[in-house]
Amino acid sequence: MELITHALGALSPLNLALALLGVTAGIVIGALPGLSATMAVAVLVPVTFGMAPESALIMLGAIYTGAIYGGSYSAILVNTPGTPSAIATTFDGYPMAQRGDGDLAVTLSTIASVVGGLVGVLALLLLAPLLAQVALSFGPVEYFWLAIFGLTLISALSEDSTLKGFMGAGLGLLLSTVGVAVIGGDIRYTYGMPVLLGGIETVSALIGLYCIPVLIDLVATPAAHLKVDDASRGVRFREGLGEAIRGKWNLLRSATIGTGVAILPGAGGSIASLVSYSEARRVAKDPGSFGKGNPQGVLATESANNATVGGGFIPTLVLGIPGTPPDAVILGALLVQGFRTGPELFTTNAGITYTFVAGLFLATCLLLPLGLLIGRYAFKSIIAIPKALLVPTIAFMTVIGTYAIRNSASDVMIMLCLGVVGWVLNRYGFRPSPIVLGLILGPIAEQGFVQGFLMGRASGSVVGTFFGGPISLTIIALSLLSVFYPLVKARRVAKRQGNNSLNEEVSS
Amino acid sequence: MTADKSMRAVPAARSRASEVLLPVLFMVGAGLCLWETRQMSQLGAVFPAVISAGVMVAAALRLAQLLLRGVIAGSPAGGGSRPRRLALVGVMSVWALALPWLGFVLTGLGSFVALMAVAQYQQWTRKRLAGHLLAGCLLVAFFYVLFAVVLNVPLPTGRWLAA
Question: What is the pTM of this model?
Answer without folding.
Answer: 0.79
